[in-house]
Amino acid sequence: MENNMKKVALFDLDGTLVAAHIWTGLFRHHLKNKVNRFPAVWYLVSHLALTPFWKMKFITTEQYYRSWGKDLAQMLKGINIERAKEIFDWLSDEYLLPTLRKDVFQKLKKHQEKRHLTVLLSGSFQELLEIVANRLNIDFAVGTELETIKNKFSGRIIPPLCFGQGKVEKISKLLAEKNLAIDFKESFAYADGFFDVPVLEMVGHPVAVEPDEKLLKIAKNKGWQII
């Protein structure tokens, strides 16, 4: 049975595989191309307004980060699927992939050479992740699903947000659906943030990439590899 088990390499996107962040790219795209400029500006202003409440601990760090991730869908409200595909292509090819981290990309290529199963696992939009995964020959993409109504994005996500423990649930669901037996002890995960700890703890070879302060501390205490 063990001989049939696969090794998997899980890669976060923003701040891990690429240095850029999707929300800034989408914001810049909308302003430059005069697309959904009000929702884009409102998204930025309304979430920056939460920062003082977060710093004063009126809202938790998890609530703060979740709001940024969940509400990002507002920038796509009213945009039809065909137009959104063009936006996602631009985000992938003109904004994200030019900032590909060469050190992490080399890790990805080595996993592919060893025929490990590779997965792009991120809180970003599922449709965008599938484009990036296709460009990099990554086997699967797991992200946050967007709600559509009459061929247009509603500005809402389909819960749950692919974040924190939600990432573990989503990747576990995918592997079960694909009937894939994984040797997690010999598998790998790459991520940059504290809220990715549940994913990193799934595998025997967790890698903290340019980790935030909390993740750096955990990685050092646990003896995880740090890039």
From TrEMBL:
PROSITE patterns: COF_1 (PS01228). Keywords: Hydrolase, Magnesium, Metal-binding. The keyword Hydrolase applies. InterPro entries: HAD-like_SerB, HAD-like_sf, HAD_hydro_SerB1, HAD_sf. GO terms for molecular function: hydrolase activity; metal ion binding. Pfam families: HAD (PF12710). PANTHER family: PHOSPHATASE RV3661-RELATED, PHOSPHOSERINE PHOSPHATASE. This is HAD-IB family hydrolase. It comes from Candidatus Nealsonbacteria bacterium CG11_big_fil_rev_8_21_14_0_20_39_9.
